[in-house]
Amino acid sequence: MATLQRLARPCRQIFKNYARTRVPIYSCRSISTSDKNKDIASTANEALVEKSQELKDLEAHFGDADPNKLKNWQSYGWDQYDRESDTFNMNLTNFAFFTVVICAGSFLIAYAPDFSLREWAVREAYLEIDRREKAGLPLIDPYLVPPDQIELPSEEEIGDQEIII
User: Does the pLDDT at position 39 exceed 60?
Assistant: First the structure.
């Protein structure tokens, strides 16, 4: 209990500092959803500013967003140089994982036989109880093994061994 009290002291101090530095809700501003063209400050001389060669190259590269062109191809990680092989290996792996492993694996787990025979043992127990009730026998027989079939050791074989019943 003393440990919890010692841990509570620094926590209280942290919460006090947090309460002092917290920004009140009423001082927050809402986000404007107006046209973004009005929010950007621009000058009339933008057309007069000359673009550098690096900026032109970047605009040309990112301006062409056609996914079918080879320069815009992003590898899935199977093959860095062959687009068709990369796509085929990705599709094959996804098919094998999702269809074979997950679907077939869950089917096998759901419909697998009872290897530990738990369900069989429960069914057999209910059948045995039903049979004993119909025959008028006790549910548990005190003489599961008939006493005349049990061979006990003689007194000489036991000797001075302690017998625990």
Answer: no
